[in-house]
Each structure stands twice: as C-alpha cells, then as structure tokens.
Write a structure and sequence with these properties.
288 residues; alpha/beta; Rossmann fold; 16% strand
Length: 288
C-alpha cells in the first residue's frame, strides 16, 4: 500500500509518518510504502507540482495534512488562506481523481461558529467565523463524495509549535500565565490522532469523522493541566475572558469547539483516551 502524506513537516504529518513507519516495522502484513512530503518538497497551492508528484509516486492513498494553520495570520491574508487550504485541496483532489487514489483530508473545529451549547456532530451545519475556518470549510467542499474528511481540534504533539510547548516555555519564566476561560474544546494529542487518521484513510472510509481526545476543557483548564503535569504550581495560571485579551486576537474563535465523535461512536469504535491523560504523557515526553 503506497501512502503519500502532504504537510509531513507539521505536527499531524510528523505523527502520521512515525505511525506509518512503526506499523511497517512491527506489522509485516501491513507494510506501507510511505512518501512524506513537507511543504519544502511539495507546495500544494501549485497545481502542476501536485499533479507531477502524485503521478510520479502513484499512491493508493493520500492523507492531505498540509494547511496554513496560523489563525490570526489567515485573518490578515484570507486570499493566501484560500490558496493553500482550499485551492491546495482542490489540486490534491484533482490529482487523486486522475490517478485513482483515495483522499483523506484533515479539517478543523473552526468550521463551526461555536454557538451551540452542545458538542458538534458530523451532521451539524458548519458556519465558520474566521478566514481560517472559512478556508478549511472550502477545502472540505473540494473533497469528492468518496473521500474521507477528519475534523480534529486543539492539536498538540511532540513536533512543531503548539499549546503544550508554549505553556511550558511561559511557565519557565517569572510572569503570570493568563489563558481564556470562555472558549471550550477538546485537546487532541497528535500521537493519539495519527493511528485513527491512518486507519480511516487506509480503509477508505467515506464521509466526515470527528476525531479528538475524550473530554473537554477551556484554554485555561488546558494550561493548568500542562503546568501540573510538569510538576509546577497550576495556581500560577489565571483565567481571563476573551474580551480581556490585550492585545485582542485578530480572528474570532468559536466559543464552543467541542466535537462529538458521533460517527465513530455509532460504529462501535473505541474513543481516544481522555485528553488530560494523553496531555500528561506528552508533557512527560517533552520535559523528559
């Protein structure tokens, strides 16, 4: 089975590469011929480059993890956000169609406005409130009916910049830690996400799937858990409201980003571990 991963330099892409490599080493019957394409190798916004890469590599499955995820920067340059996240997905989808490969697209909780009081299911209507969310929803619209869309949220992992690393860095400095307590979501550790994402892609599962770690919290609760897992005083973390942020963020965030993993649960599949347990393991790895 030949698998191409776009955005292989990002934290989800890196976790996917490690998962696929580990499977090939430990499960001979599931050996994968993996091609990892970071942005330096494949810019998905360039159609000719995408078509050439897919044609030469002849993958059976493409996991499209490449994206511009700088939420506030996307707000300042929505055209670039669309070029990478929407048109880039169209380019990958075109190549998959022409070569007969299955497409699995990694999407986000930001496709929702966050106004529901309950977790969002795969069948709730999206309504993004930011340029980033709009561009990722536009990317979803480029995925063909037979493709796979995996929405996730608040991702952190061993590789790349993320919330866990930011909090650990700030905690090493002598200053207050302030995080918003009026935005809710489900932190998701990339190393937990990658196996399920790869399973869905290899099985060519059609449709939308929400995949996050179990449970929910706020950014404030998330930060306190990270500090506590590092053996530091969680009381150093102070709650603030979104309105109190100074300077304010350029892009609006959905106040409720919790994704109900309903499609997988209805199929009888095991949920991912509770987020605090997985974040604790991640922090131990990062400081170990």
């Amino acid at each position: 089975m030949r698998v191409l991963v776009t955005g292989a330099g990002g934290q989800v892409g890196e976790a996917l590469v490690r998962e696929a490599t580990a499977r090939s080493a430990t499960r001979p019957g599931e050996a994968l011929a993996l091609v990892a394409c970071p942005r330096s190798v494949l810019d998905v916004s360039r159609r000719d480059a995408v078509l050439s890469a897919v044609e030469s590599l002849q993958p059976d499955v493409v996991v499209h993890a490449a994206a511009w995820t700088a939420v506030d920067a996307c707000e300042a340059d929505p055209a670039r956000a669309l070029a990478v996240n929407a048109l880039g997905t169209r380019n990958v989808a075109d190549a998959c169609f022409l070569l007969g490969a299955h497409l699995c697209y990694v999407s986000t909780d930001y496709v929702f406005d966050g106004l529901l009081e309950r977790p969002y299911t795969e069948w709730d209507r999206p309504n993004p409130v930011s340029a980033y969310g709009h561009s990722k929803l536009a990317g979803e619209m480029e995925v063909p009916p037979g493709g796979t869309i995996v929405r996730t949220s608040w991702v952190c992992g061993r590789h790349g910049a993320n919330m866990a690393k930011t909090v650990l860095r700030l905690a090493s400095e002598e200053r207050p830690l302030r995080f918003v307590d009026d935005q809710r979501g489900s932190p998701t550790v990339a190393e937990d996400l990658a196996p399920v994402l790869l399973d869905l892609a290899l099985a060519r599962r059609r449709g939308i799937f929400h995949v996050t770690n179990a449970g929910e919290t706020t950014w404030f609760g998330f930060a306190r858990a990270i500090v506590a897992a590092a053996g530091l005083d969680p009381a150093r973390v102070e709650p603030v409201s979104t309105a109190e942020l100074d300077p304010p963020r350029a892009a609006r965030r959905p106040p409720n980003s919790v994704l109900d993993n309903l499609a997988r649960r209805l199929a009888g599949e095991e949920p991912l571990p509770y987020w605090e347990e997985s974040v604790g393991r991640l922090v131990a790895d990062l400081i170990g």
